[in-house]
Amino acid sequence: MQDSDNDLDISHLARLAQLALDEDAANAARSQLSNIINMIDDMQKVDTEGVEPMAHPLDATARLRRDEVTERVDVEHFQDGAPDTADGYYLVPRVVE
Amino acid sequence: MTAPTIKQLHQALVQGQFSARELAQHYLSGIESHEDLNSFISVDTESALARAQAADELFANNSANLLTGIPLGMKDIFCAQGTTTTCASNMLRHFVAPYDATVVEQLNDQQTVTLGKTNMDEFAMGSSNENSAFGAVKNPWDTTCVPGGSSGGSAAAVAAGLVPVATGTDTGGSIRQPAAFCGITGLKPTYGRVSRYGMVAFASSLDQGGAFARHAEDAGLLFAAMSGFDPRDSTSAQREDTWVKDLMNGGLATLDTSLTIGLPKEYFAASMESGIGEALDGLAKQLEQAGHTLIEVSLPHTEAAVAAYYVIAGAEASTNLSRYDGVRFGHRCENPTSLEDLYTRSRSEGFGEEVKRRILTGTYALSVGYFDAYYLKAQKIRRLISSDFMAAFDNADVLLTPTTPAPAFKLGSLTKDPVAMYAQDVFTVPTSLAGLPALSMPCGQVGGMPVGAQLIGQPFREDVLLGLANQYQAMSDWHLQLPGTVHPGPAGVTS
Predict the structure, then answer these.
(1) pLDDT above 80: residue A3
(2) Is B197 touching A (CB cutoff 8 A)?
């Protein structure tokens, strides 16, 4: 799919994945990801004309249940491990000035 | 007796040769004296001894079952209230789950005694257990070699006699490959058999919990306790296999010696160290002599499996791991200047290199313009691989293959080359893509290191895999070979 290592826009991918890579890490990631992409490009050799994609092994589908409240509400308990909370809310840096 | 079975331990507990508390203490001392293997991330002595005490009360009331008081190692991917569940990641280094995984609940219900949480590759991503924020695990057969991954801590702990059984998870071989490298038995059940509720997600269409033990029957006993329908897991299988209950209550049933065993030619033709091929041939001959029939089968799309697997697993991982945002739980960076800074720095500090690599691979495969060429293509290949297996099962009851192309490799030897590392999974990922059950058992040695044979079964026929492994273990002693680094079993247990 890619023509060369340089075509791989690693900073764009990192931004999509919300990861920050310094220059060394970006260079290493670019070269390793290029090798990985070369490996996965092998898939193109396989003739998949007319083959139905398989999302789940054994074609399992997600089961539906009745639309009833089943969850346990215990904000204090579940927020116990949160980095920063107040009055049952999760705190993050100010988004709107 | 250095490798007692669960039944032997149970008998000794019933007869009062030692208490469950003494048994727990015996294994805890082994974990302590073998800290150099780094097979455990955390050990909870206090809670283990409290559980053992409760087990002893059941023995006193004659209400104990086979697993009561049996010590075990729990892979640190299963959420357990009151202890950390780190997934071997700095992202979750201090994470204490607010609930128990279904597997944890099920094993607690059996009154097993969890001694601690075992080491693993970060978020179960790896084939060597070198990608752990808590350091690499060493192979007890040769401490300069890897134990395999991602469930390397569980495999090394069972091989070294630090626990009789341990849980694991297998996404592309993470139970079978470490079982092979450490010379023990490992079972990856059919997708949907063991609940994923409370099991930290890596690739949700592939992840499956399973069991490690030295003896096939013990892997079966642990598997039976862990399996069953769970309404809290949306892909949990609704099955009524009576043999699972029979197994849990009494052990493995005797299996007929009239199976047709398929040998996939692609697996044997693939570049393998000759020693592995010889060990497999020896095993196949023994099974034939026992009365089974061997036939050659073909799985023509095997070669494309690693590529399809790394696309699908990467795509699902990049999606699953987007939940680690530094907001609700897990690591948060210091003094974030904006929401974006909070997300990006928390994730960059929390995730290790391999995890980032897989997220980037998945992000690439799912990104605009590449979706059809990668993700959809991989899903089509997944269908072809699954169809290959189903066609093979028209003629064969079970398939026999090597578990890995070579025995355990040296620590550090593949860390710089992710693609070479991924290629190690060539014999295990096809089964994962198809969701089939598979078991690895020791069947020889090459250069003093164990060799694993893989049995692949039809959906929900773990009984055939366990039965056949049990049969083989009755006529061989590879599973009883012990590594140089081993903790002796409890005194007073007789076989």
Answers:
(1) no
(2) no
Q: What is the pLDDT of residues A13-59, one digit of tens each?
A: 999 999 999 999 999 999 999 999 999 999 999 999 999 999 988 87
* Beta-sheet strands, E only, within chain A: 85-86, 89-90
* Long-range contacts of B26-29, Cβ-Cβ distance < 8 Å, separation of 24 or more: B26/B490, B27/B71, B27/B115, B27/B162, B27/B163, B27/B164, B27/B487, B28/B115, B29/B487
CA distance readout (Å), B46 to B27, B43, B53, B56, B319: 14, 9, 11, 15, 37
**Res B237: pLDDT:** 94
Give CA B384 to chain center in angstroms. 25
Q: How far apart are CA B178 and CA B59, in angstroms?
A: 34
What DSSP designation does B489 have?
A: P
CA-nearest of A17, A1, A12, A15 to B358 is A17
B89, B151, B174, B318: which one is catalytic? B174
Q: In chain A, which residues have their Cβ closer than 8 Å to the Cβ of B382?
A: 53-54
- For the cut 50, the answer to whether the pLDDT of residue B495 exceeds it is no
Q: For chain B, how big is the Rg over CA atoms in Å?
A: 21
Q: Give the single-character DSSP code of B409.
A: P
pLDDT of residue B450: 97
3-class DSSP state of B145: strand
Find the residue in A nearest to B99 (Cα): A78
CA distance B342 to B332: 7
Show which of residues 203-262 on chain B sit within 8 Å of chain A, judged by CB atoms: 205-206, 231, 234-237
In angstroms, the CA A9 to CA B69 distance is 55
> What Cα–Cα distance (Å) separates residue A68 from each residue in A65, B108, B124, B237?
8, 29, 34, 22
Q: Quick check: B335 contacting A, CB < 8 Å? A: no
Q: How close, in Å, is residue B395 to chain A by CA atoms?
A: 19
Structure tokens at A95: 């988004």
H or E segment to which residue B462 belongs: helix B462-474
Q: Note the pLDDT tens digit of each residue in B227-259.
A: 999 999 999 999 999 999 999 999 999 999 999
- Residue A40 CA, chain-centre distance (Å), reads 18
- Which tens digits make up the pLDDT trace of B141-170? 999 999 999 999 999 999 999 999 999 999
Only one residue has tokens 């139905």, namely: A52
Whether residue B358 contacts residue B317, with contact meaning beta carbons closer than 8 Å, is answered with yes
**B35 or A2, which is more confident?**
B35
Residue B142: DSSP 8-state = B
Q: Could you give the 3-state DSSP secondary structure of residue A62?
A: coil
Residue B357: closest CA among A10, A39, A29, A27: A29
Catalytic residue flag (residue B75)? yes
Length of chain B, in residues:
495
Query: Which ipTM was obtained for this model?
Result: 0.92
